[in-house]
Amino acid sequence: MAIEPLDLLRSNLSRVRIPEPTNRIYKHECCVSFDTPRSEGGLFIDMCTFLAFGKDFVGWNYEKTGNPVYLHIKQTKKLVPEDRPLKKPTILAIGVDGGFDNNEVEYKESHFIVILPEYVTLPFPSVELPEKVRLAVDAILLAEGAERKEQLAAWTADKKQVSTYATNLEQIDNGVVIPPSGWKCAKCEKTENLWLNLTDGMILCGRKNFDGTGGNNHAVDHYRETGYPLAVKLGTITADLEAADVFSYPEDESVLDPQLAQHLAFFGIDFSSLQKTEMTTAERELDQNTNFDWNRIQESDQEVDPIFGPGYTGLVNIGNSCYMAATMQVVFSTRSFISRYYLNQSLKQAFEVSPADPTVDLNMQLTKIAHGLLSGKYSVPAFENDKKENVATSTTTAKQEGIRPQMFKSVIAASHPEFSTVRQQDALEFFLHFLDQVERANAGKTELDPSRSFKFGIEDRILCSSGKVTYNRRLDYILSLNIPLHEATNKGELESFHKLKAEKLAEGKEINGNEIVRPRVPLEACLANFSAPEEIHDFYSTALKTKTTALKSAGLTSFPDYLVLHMRRFVMEAGWVPKKLDVYIDVPDIIDISHMRSKGLQSGEELLPDRVLDEEDSNKTWVNEEIVSQLVSMGFNQLHCQKATINTSNAGVEEAMNWLLSHMDDPDIDVPISETHGSETIVDQSKVDTLISFGFQEEIARMALKASGGDIEKATDWIFNNPDASVSSMDATTSNKASTPNDVDLPDGGGRYRLIGIVSHSGTSTQCGHYVAHVLKDGRWVIFNDDKVGASINPPKEMGYLYFFERLG
User: Fold this and answer.
1) Read out DSSP for 228-276?
2) pTM for the complete prediction?
3) Within a 10 A sphere around the Cβ of 580, how many other Cβ atoms?
4) Is the Endoplasmic reticulum keyword given for this protein (predicted)?
5) How far is CA 174 from the centre of its chain?
């Protein structure tokens, strides 16, 4: 006799929990897929763990946990009145009360209690349900979903603080009285995006956006000239003064001014009579990040045809996340990542080996995003409500809904304070952080690690004036290239352009956009510049026992499956002011870097002797003070900079900075130099015992701890990177032999590569603007602009920030 549904539910009440306020409740997206309550099968919330699963995946959770009771949430479209008014956002959030509303179709929501494995269904609400179930469901439905909490927390993380300049703000009595309307920039004709400086009453336009909109930077230029710190955006001042947009230039952020009423009254402003007419910076940021116009980015003058299907799934911008979206589209177009997280690992396999909470498991979320991007399940034409028609007459539009990488971002950014915010980030930094996390997740399983397909060895050869040499090796994921502007191939055109520019400036005229000529530098010149010998001044020669001039050249010890070239388009001008090089790089579809392979120690070459400090030497500090001062000006500690310079033999700022960033956490980083030179490295026996407990030999453990400054995590990495290490074959101290990382097992092959991906950037710095990816798929170029995917007509090969090449053969 079959058990009655209510009796079946009562028999499983022990597997039902009433959520506490601290519980994370997932109810907007499946933990192992991108299914939502709007998906065909709806969403099932485990009423014990509060994890959510799509229709095809809830059975897996039952098999793994035995939890039988689920709240089923299903959303279906409902008819929308034609005259529905737009709602303005009041907080910096999307899809929550008071957040951004883009007038999308509304949905009605239905709820059921479902008991597995037979999928016995009970309606909700119902007075017949046990009180525990009713209380649990009510708590789940009333709670803010964990997905939305994370998103909202990121948006509101940078809560406004009271400006330190507000209390004692100087105000100049120069007779300025600000009218309630009719404002205009004092230096141009701009009438929007205007800022009132609260010291002298100057009204000036705001910053120029990356796409050319906004102001002309007159407000910030005025601060640089005068140092007057605070400005308020006109049009955002109402009776609610806390909602006004006050910006502090020295603090470089939006702030609160508790005395804003007095500061405004000083210039005759009655704030109670002003009506809000301008978006605040936060609202404008929200508007730009959630409604990015296709026509403002790359290929804006082309009619791009949308593409749908496997491998053509867009990533929804969840708040300045284009740096992540562009990078992931290229990465998951490589064979190594496709094989690891899609072809060779199913969603079920990843879920079965994941911990109790799969939302925090990197392997699970990588597999989820791989299947989301590559399966084609979520790359289908979207239906959008025609503004003049009803939902019933919706038509297919040239867009797709894409997938929201919120869980993936939460996991990959968990260990990085910057990537966990909604600020724009450097795509290069994210790419390196991402590969580092993937490598760690696959530690001990090198045959599975897809990040190795990007890794290669670099060897620096330093020729001392004594005629002796030293070789230093390192491993890297990217080849960072300077752009030699003097190698431009269009110097004649550039000269004519500069003459025309000078003439027009003398006449008070502006240069038209179509008249601008940019330098064109061949990629071959950038690669040649990397390999070209360069002089190292103040190099300490262990052969001559004095400082001398040496020549350094670089080459690759292995050629990776995928070669990533980073173009150094952002440089530092005098005063460490960042500047973006306005230059085109002529990049061919096929390159050959065979000539860049390092030859290693050659017959007849003699190595520089290892440096052995005697008592006299130990008191000498061989430091290039110019290198130290440059590092100090970047904000680094003076002692740390000296150590970095010494340990890189005064090779240069970049080498010292790399050493510094790798040794910031060394336990002896703050020990004075005189105490560290000439002394034997003492290894903490407890740390040795810890590594032994991991299964490593004691001798190897000691070597690794010496090489890593006593840091257990770095020592573990060192052992994994030097699997062939032995006491007899390697010395972990700094010497010509010891500085050689293991690259024997890295992928290697010929030097011919084909261009398969480009990450390009629009904007004045990597911390603002927009990133777009172009990927060569199925013999054609495809543009990935967040959730917009289309056939590229004219890929911007000359404007790339990161170039991805695949090795041929």
Assistant:
1) --EEEETT--SS-GGGS-EEETTTTEEEE-TTHHHHHHTTT--GGG---
2) 0.69
3) 15
4) no
5) 46
708 residue type, one letter? S
Q: 460 has which bridge partners? A: 472, 554
Instruction: Supply the DSSP string of 760-801, one letter for each residue.
Output: EEESSSTTSSEEEEEEEETTEEEEEETTEEEE-SS--GGGEE
Element (H, E) at 34: none
Neighbours of 632 (CB within 10 A): 15
pLDDT in tens, 198-247: 999 999 998 875 445 568 889 999 999 999 999 998 877 766 667 678 99
Tell me the two tokens of residue 46.
């485990």
Ligand-binding site membership of 31 (annotated): no
**CA nearest 733: which of 691, 683, 687, 671?**
683
746, 457 contact by CB (below 8 A): yes
How, if at all, do strands 246-248 and 253-256 pair?
Answer: antiparallel
The answer on whether 188 is annotated among ligand-binding residues is yes
Q: What pLDDT score was predicted for residue 105?
A: 73
| Side chain identity at residue 418, one-letter code | E
Cis before residue 125, ω within 30 degrees of 0? Answer: yes
Residues constituting the chain = 809
Q: Residue with structure tokens 């939890």?
A: 67
546-574 CB burial, b ≥16 within 10 A, e <16: ebbebebebbbbbbbbbbbbbbebbeeee
Q: DSSP 3-state assignment of 733?
A: coil
Identify the CA nearest to 786 among candidates 327, 280, 184. Answer: 327
Residue 294: pLDDT band with limits 50, 70, 90 = very low
Max CA distance (Å), the chain = 97
Rg of the chain, C-alpha, whole Å: 30
In whole angstroms, what is the distance from residue 627 CA to residue 633 CA?
10
Cα of first residue to Cα of last residue in the chain, in angstroms, is 66
Q: What are phi and psi of 437, to 5 degrees?
A: -65, -40
Q: What ranges in 143-189 are assigned the alpha helix state H?
A: 146-155
- Residue 684: what are its φ and ψ, rounded to 5°? -70, 120
Q: Which is nearest to 435 in space by CA: 464, 397, 475?
A: 475
Q: Is 768 a known ligand-binding residue? A: no
Q: What is the pLDDT of residues 688-714, one digit of tens each?
A: 766 666 666 777 777 777 666 666 766
- Give the helix/strand (H/E) hosting 520: strand 520-522
Concatenated DSSP letters of 345-411: --HHHHHHTS-S-GGG-HHHHHHHHHHHHHS-TT-SEEEE--TTS-GGG-EEEEEE--B--HHHHHH
Q: What does the alpha-carbon distance between residue 222 and residue 256 come to, in Å, rounded to a whole number?
A: 21
Torsion of CA 64, 66, 69, 73, to 10 degrees: 10
Active site residues: 322, 770
DSSP-assigned beta bridge partners for residue 609: none
Q: How would you label 605-620 residue by residue, b for 16+ Cβ within 10 Å and e otherwise? A: eeebeebeeeeeeeee
Q: Which residues share a beta bridge with 555?
A: 459
Q: Write out the two tokens for 367.
A: 């597999």
Per residue in 624-670, pLDDT tens? 888 888 888 777 788 888 888 887 777 778 778 878 877 777 777 77
Q: Annotated binding residue at 205?
A: yes
Answer for the pair 156, 136: CB distance below 8 angstroms, yes or no.
Answer: no
CB 707 within 8 A of CB 439: no
Kindly report the number of other CB atoms within 10 A of residue 601's CB atom.
Answer: 14
Alpha-carbon span 100 to 95, nearest angstrom: 6
